[in-house]
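User: Second chain of the day. Same drill as before.
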Amino acid sequence: MGNGYIDIHCHILPGLDDGPEDMAQTMEMLGIAREDGIEGIVASPHIKSGVYDNTRQSIAHAIGGLNGGANGVAIYMGADIHISRGLIEDVRRGALPLINDKNYLLLELPAYVLPPIAEIEKMIAGLRVNGVTPVITHPERNLAILQDISILRKLMKAGAICQITAGSITGKFGSDIQKASFKLLKKDMVHVVASDAHDTRRRPPVLSEAHAMVASRFGCGLARDLFILNPRSIVNGESMAGDPSRS
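Assistant: Same format as last time:
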């Protein structure tokens, strides 16, 4: 890997979820990503039982169809995995896609009503015991966490790390979510920023604008950690700055 951005959460695979509909749109997204300075993307289609029943095998097959001509962008295994009761067992039996087949997992919480926090903490701790670090995706867009930021602090103490969305930082999801993003950044509660891209226009794979804003408001060192160094460590399966298990 070079010094470009690594986007650990991007719906880039065609026809698997609410991301690109076909290969033409996927290739256009890859072109946008490359022009923005993104050198690696974790392909992360939704896995949500009864809604998006993607499997590790179907995702691997779709990635195999891309890597030969991905516009110079490296594509890594992954999925945006909705929280479920069988999650830990599915991890143990190798059924779920870990990021780049290493030891991090993108974990999506329900957007509006969370399960009991103690149950989520127990699940996070169980994943850590099994050598997997859950990366909570876009908590700044989660209604319960927006209303009570201490929820996220508890989940981080249990062993999770936090990924917020580039568009949240730049205001594309509204001023309330932007303010929540700045609050999390100020409190050192963010470990990585990703695009969570779904298409070429409304939610494109672009990180540079958010990177510039973080660098301006919070310093170039933090921006480098969140957009380059930490996502690279995640893809490589290495420990990273701010891992709650090492604090």
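The chain has a mean pLDDT of 93.

User: Great, on to the next one.
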